[in-house]
Specification:
heterodimer; A: about 140 residues; mainly alpha; 5 helices; about 75% helix; rod-shaped; B: about 110 residues; Arc Repressor Mutant, subunit A; two-stranded antiparallel ribbon; two-stranded antiparallel sheet; 4 strands
Chain lengths: ~140, ~110
Amino acid sequence: MDAQPGARLVETVLRCYPARWRRRHGEEAAELAALLIQDGTPLGSIACSYLIGAAREWLTPRPGRRLRMVASALLAVACSLGIPAGLLASTAPARAASASQSRGHTHCQPGSHEPGPSVTPATDHFRVSIWQARHGRFC
Amino acid sequence: MAVTRRDGRAGQDVLRRVGEASVLILISLASGPKHGYALIQDIRGLADVELGPGTLYGALDRLERLGLIESLPAEDRRHPYRITAPGAAALRVHLDSLERVSAAGRLRLQLGGI
C-alpha cells in the first residue's frame, strides 16, 4: 500500500543523480530501496541516504567532469577579462578621437565662428560624435 | 599512503582514506560476490552497521574506480560485485595495520591499568 508513494519518492530522489550514475545503478537502486522498505527501513532514511549520495556524486571530481570544470573556469575567466578588454578597446579609439578633436578641430572648421565642441578626453567621445553629426563634419 | 612495517617490508595501505563503508564492503566481498541488498544485510550482521543505500553505491563506485572490486554481469537488475586480487591484497594490508594498532592499544590499556 505504502510502496506506491515510497517508490515515487525514491524515483524522484534518484533523479537527483547524474545521468551516468542513473544509467549504471538506477534500476538496481530502485529495487534495493523497495527491498529495504519491505524490510522495514524507514522511507525517510532511504531517501535521505540517496539524496546525500547524489550530492556527493555531483561534488566528487571525475576526470571528464574535471576537464569540463576547467573549460568552464577558463571560459568564465575569458569572459570576465573580455568585458573589461572590450571596454578598453571601445574607450581607446574614443580617447584617440577626442584627443585629435581637441587638438585638431580647427582644421576641420576653418573660419567657423561657431563654438566647437568642448571636449574633455575620452568621456565626451559620444558628445563629440553627436556634435559632428549634427554639423555634418567628419574629420 | 605508504606504510613501512617494522620488519622492513613496505605495504601500500590504500584503504586508509577510503572510509569505513568501503572497508566493510571489501570484508563482506571477501567471502564471495554479492549484490547491493546482500551486502547491506551481510554488513548489518557482520558489524552491526546500517549502511545506507546512497553510501553503499558511493563506496562501490569508489572501490570499482580503484580497481579493488569489479562488477559481474547483471542478474535480473542486480549487479553482483566481486573483490579483485589487488582488492584482497589491499584489505590484507589494511587489516594487518588495524591489528597492529589494536594490539598496541590493548597493551597500553593493560599497562595503564585502566
